[in-house]
Amino acid sequence: MSELVLRYPALGPAFALLLAVVVFSLATDTFLNVDNISLVVAQSLVVGTLALGQTLIILTAGIDLANAAIMVFGTLLMAKLAGGSGLVALVAGVVLCAFFGAVSGGLVTSLRLPPFIVTLGMLTVVAASSRIFAAGQSFPVTDGLLGALGRHFYLFGQIEVTVGMVLGLVMFLVAWYVLGRTAWGRHVYALGNDPEAARLTGIHVNRTRFSVYLVAGVIYGIAAWQAIGRIPNADPNAFQTGNLDSITAVVIGGTSLFGGRGGVLGTLVGALIVSVLRSGLTQAGIDNLYQDVATGILVIVAVALDQLARRRSR
Questions:
Q1: Average pLDDT in the 135-162 region?
Q2: Average pLDDT, stretch 270-291?
């Protein structure tokens, strides 16, 4: 069984998601409503996209504590520039997020600093800088392009689907293909498994690690676009737990915090699990604090199962 879990890390999370849906559909009368299912998916969108970038970094045995703060700064820059060209504002926001990702990657690779310390410092710097930039204000966004991902249509005439959901699914599928079918993806896994062995096989370890942080930064920029599409208001105090939520989705999705194992499809399922859990517990009348307790327990169980599976595979 452990070999099967190691080979297909998304199987366990997929079963957990199915179980959660069944339990909450039996416990409440409204959970399986079409509108609620659409809302659950929509609520997982921004954190899921942050978790996509986080997955790439964790696969290299790194971590990014600054991803949500970077995304928030991206939303602020987009909102401030939206009075001119929406395209310029969008590109500027994505470039800013990519820049912060590149800085983190550069510090980790060139100075060989621990990713935890680098991104913890980046979290403080970026969060403070975004508040200074915003001067304590939030900025409503009315630009059509920046709000485009919030537009919706109805699937089968009933299920509300936003453009952001479609883009998010496409991003996960592209990442799944790149990680599983390209040399770059194989290098990412090799780097997470054993950096020295990867170097001896001819992989440019520093170049690969830096590129992962850069790509993750671009993904955070797209998450900023999705956040504005979902709620057309840029707030410097938004998504304060987004970094932890993204790590939660990655871990619950079966990606090992020690690198080299897991994948983005599991992360997609993990993000949905977090959203399903919060929605189901809310409808069941459970206080938010107890929801946080349940989520924390789920993370600990996921890491423990990962460790157990690794030990049995040796």
A1: 88
A2: 86
pLDDT at 281 over 90: no
Amino acid at 21: V
Cα separations (Å) of 259 from 27, 61, 62, 73?
A: 37, 4, 7, 28
Q: How many domains does the chain have?
A: 1
Tell me if 111 is assigned to some domain: yes
The whole-number pLDDT of residue 61 equals 94
CB under 8 Å to 234, separation ≥6 — which residues?
A: 72, 75, 76, 78, 79, 80, 134, 138, 139, 141, 228
Q: What are 20-29's pLDDT values in tens digits?
A: 889 888 888 8
**Contacts from 279-287 at CB under 8 Å and sequence distance 24+?**
279/24, 279/31, 279/36, 279/39, 279/40, 279/43, 280/20, 280/23, 280/24, 280/27, 280/28, 280/31, 283/24, 283/28, 283/30, 283/31, 283/36, 284/24, 284/27, 284/28
Domain-located, residue 277: no
**158 located within any domain:** yes
Enclosing domain of residue 91: 45-240
pLDDT exceeds cutoff 70 at 8: no
**Helix (H), strand (E), coil (C) string for 238-255:** CCCCHHHHHHHHHHHCCC
Report strand pairing: 139-140 vs 152-155: unpaired
